[in-house]
Amino acid sequence: MIGALGELHPQVATRFGLDVGCAVFEFDLGVLLEGEPRRPRYREVSRFPLVRRDLAVLVAADRPAGEIAAAIAQGGGAHLLSVDLFDRYQGRGVPEGRVSLAFRLVFQRIDRTLTDEEVAAAVQRVVRTLERRFDAKLR
Questions:
Q1: Closest to 64 measured CA to CA, from 134, 1, 128, 123
Q2: pLDDT in tens, 114-123
Q3: CB distance 109 to 46 below 8 Å
Q4: Which of 2, 26, 59, 90 is most buried, taking the most CB atoms under 10 A from its CB?
């Protein structure tokens, strides 16, 4: 953990004479400065359209979503640009001890438009990877 961010409690804000909502943050600069500096990476901008696919899977509730996202990024192929978690659900309709995680996958090529078949094959590779590594079930 490198820090924390949150809203100041209204009672505390009042004690400081603040009449509006106030955010407070704290960062551990030592941790931030320890890491390797990242060099900016250049990626050519494509003139061809993005293809978005949403994928929801059931996994063990104690499995970190970051591990799942990393596996998706690995298994998605060279044309997978991004993986974003947009929903986490646990409750009615989800088996005990499991959680539903929904990810948005964005694909694009530099040289041409991706076909539906290419995107479907990439998504299937991702699903097989998640089934094998995390006993995930497609939702």
A1: 134
A2: 999 999 999 9
A3: yes
A4: 59
Cα separation, 27 vs 24, whole angstroms: 10
Which pLDDT band, with edges at 50, 70 and 90, does 136 fall under? very high
Please indicate, yes or no, if residue 61 is contained in any of the structural domains: yes
pLDDT at 104: 98
- Could you tell me the residue range of the domain that residue 20 belongs to? 3-34
Identify which of 126, 122, 14 has the alpha carbon closest to the alpha carbon of residue 68.
126
pTM: 0.71
- How far apart CA 33 and CA 29 sit, in angstroms, is 6
Do the domain assignments include residue 89?
yes
Report the mean per-residue pLDDT for the chain.
Answer: 93
Query: 3-class SS at 85?
Result: strand
Whether residue 39 lies inside any domain: the answer is no
User: 90 in a domain, yes or no?
Assistant: yes
